[in-house]
Design brief:
alpha+beta, four-stranded mixed beta sheet, globular
């Protein structure tokens, strides 16, 4: 996913790959992140035809047919279960929250707190949002 690359965040924190014919009971859940994660059944997120969703190293859904559905279910899990974004995915998830889901709180963040001082919007996310808005404005 390009967002992960742009923000220098690791794909392994969001996606876990298994063989395309892997059954739910064959997934090595102890290797899956505790936070919501998409289990990709196949080599690539883009070419796979089956996905699973895990949360707290438990399978929540074992037969998701599209990447976008799996991504939306994973993202929605953070809100449904009131889970903070892990710091290793903070920028990617905040960008998805603000730009794709249009959830833009004036203050506060779902990123887990590591220090006392916390900005309302991640500066890297804000920069990308501004660059995209400038590009749209110049294209129009």
């Amino acid at each position: 996913m390009l967002l992960l690359s742009y923000f220098d965040e690791k794909e392994e924190s969001m996606f876990f790959h298994v063989e395309d014919a892997c059954l739910a009971e064959e997934v090595q859940l102890e290797q899956v992140p505790l936070t919501p994660a998409v289990i990709v059944c196949g080599q690539s997120c883009y070419s796979s035809t089956r996905y699973m969703l895990s949360l707290d190293q438990n399978l929540i859904n074992t037969n998701i047919s599209s990447f976008m559905s799996a991504l939306c279910l994973m993202f929605g899990s953070y809100y449904c279960f009131n889970i903070h974004y892990p710091s290793e995915l903070a920028s990617t998830l905040e960008f998805l929250q603000r730009c794709l889901s249009s959830i833009n709180p004036d203050r506060g963040t779902k990123v887990e707190k590591k220090s006392k001082r916390r900005l309302n919007i991640n500066p890297r996310v804000l920069t990308l949002i501004q660059e995209l808005a400038d590009h749209e404005w110049h294209e129009g």
